[in-house]
Amino acid sequence: MTDASIALNRFGLGARPDQAFPANPKAWLTAQFGQFDPRPDAIAKAPTSASVSAELADYFRTQRALRAQAGATATPTAGAPPAPGPTDVQREARQFAARENRQSYAEAVGARATVALNSDTPFVERLVYFWANHFAVSADKLQVVGLSGTLEFEAIRPHVLGSFRDMLTAVERHPAMLLYLDQAVSVGPNSLLGQRVAARGMRKIGLNENLAREILELHTLGVRTDYTQADVTEFARAMTGWTVAGIGQGPGARAAGTNGLPGDFIFAAPIHEPGDRRIMGKTYPAGGVEQAQAVLNDVAIAPATARHIATKLARHFAGDNPPPAMVGRLEAAFLKSNGDLPTVYRAIIDSPEAWAPPPLKFKTPWEWSISTMRALGARIADSLVMVGLLNQLGQPMWRPGQPVGYDDIAASWAGPDALVRRVEAAERFAMRAGTQVDARALALKLFPGAISPATQQSLDRAESPGQALALLLVAPESLRR
Length: 481
What we know:
This protein is mostly helical. The protein folds into 3 domains: 3-31 and 360-479, no CATH class; 41-70 and 86-162; 181-318 and 321-358, no CATH class. Helix content is 56%, strand content 2%. The chain has helices spanning 3-11, 25-31, 41-44, 49-68, 86-118, 122-134, 142-145, 148-156, 164-172, 175-180, 192-199, 210-219, 229-239, 251-256, 289-300, 303-318, 324-336, 341-349, 365-375, 383-393, 416-433, 439-446, 453-460, 465-473, 476-479; strands at 242-244, 265-267, 277-279, 282-284. Strands 1-2 form a two-stranded antiparallel ribbon. Strands 3-4 form a two-stranded antiparallel sheet. The longest helix is centred in the first third of the chain and has 33 residues, at 86-118. It starts with a helix and ends with a helix.
C-alpha cells in the first residue's frame, strides 16, 4: 500500500471516486483537526437526548398512573364493549414507547452513516467511532435504545479533539451511560433516603457498582491494574447521587424530584453516601457531586489510563498485536500532555508502525459498509436499510451486548459465515449500481498504487461489469485496511 492509500483507507473511512489523492498524506490527516464539524446537519436534525427523554418521561408517567389505578374496576354501559383493562393499556403504552425508541434509534443510525459518507474529515470521524466503542453502551434496555446514539453525538463528538478528561466527564454524566449501567438506581445505604427506607423496613435498596467498575476497568485504568475491589466499592459510594432527571426509576428517581428537564444530569443529595472516601491510596473529602468528579479527574490522567488508551489506539491503527514501541510513544504523549487528544493523535500519525505497507486490520462490518458506500458515491444513507445491513453483517449499531464494546481484532469478523454475508451484500450493492461502473477504473481511484496483481487479474477475468464490481468490493484491498 502507498501512503496515500493508507491515509484514505486505514486512517480514513475509504476513498470516494470524486476525491483527489492526498499529495501529503500526513499533512492531510492533521489538517482535519481544524476542519472537523462536531455537529453537521444530519446530526443536528437527529433526535437528541432531551427529545428522547421527554418521550420516555411521558411513558413512565403513564405507567405510574396505570399502576395506581390497577385495582380499580369500571362498570360498563349496557351493550358497550368492555373497557380496556390496565393490562391492555400498559401493553399499548409499552408498544408505543418501544416504537418511538426504535424510530429514534434508526434515525440516529442513518444520521451517523450519512455523515460518514459525506465527511471530508474521515480520520476524525474514525476517532469518533473508536471512542464511541470505547465508551460503549448497548441499546438493549427500553431506556437506552433511543439514547444510544445521542451519547456519541453529545458526549463524544464535541470532545473528540479536546481532553480525555472532558470527554470522560461528559460520557459518565450522559443519561445513556447512567441508565445503561444502572447508576440512576444506586442509593447510598447511609444516605438520607437509604436510612429512611431501612427504618421503615421497606424493600432493600442500596449501592450499584456497575458504573464505578466499568469506569475503572474499561474506560480508564484497564482490567486488573491499579485498583482493588475495595476501590470499586468506595468509588461507587462516591458516585451515589449521580442520576438522571425525569426518566430514572426507583427510589433514586423519587429523590431526584422534579429538578431539571427529563434526561438532564443531576446530583440527588438525598441518595448520596456521606463521608470521605479512600480510593487507590488517596482520600477524597466529602463534597457531594465534586467527590466523584475528583476521582474522575485523577484516573483520567493516571499512568495506567495512558497505557490502556495507548494500547487500544495502537491496536486500532497498527494491528491486532499492538507494537510495543508505538504503545510507548502514545503513552508518553498522553502523559506529557495530560490527556490532550490531538497530541496523542499526532503521535499516531508520526508512528511508522501505522504506515506499514501490508494491510494491518480486517474491517469491521461498519467500516466495510461505509467504505463500500463511499466507493460507490453514496451520499445519503437510508436509516432502515442501514439498520438492516448492519444487523445482517453482525454488528448492530450501538448494540454490542456488553460494556466492553465490539472487538477490534480480525478473529471476531473474518469467519466463514461473516464473509459469506459480505459477499451477498456486495452482490446486492453491485446489482443496484448497475452496469455503468467500471470496476477496474474505480479500483485505481480507491486504492492508489495498492491494487495487487491477483485482484487486477480477477477484475480482468470477470464475466460482466456487475461481477467485476462485486469482486472488487470483497477483494482483500476492500476487506482490509
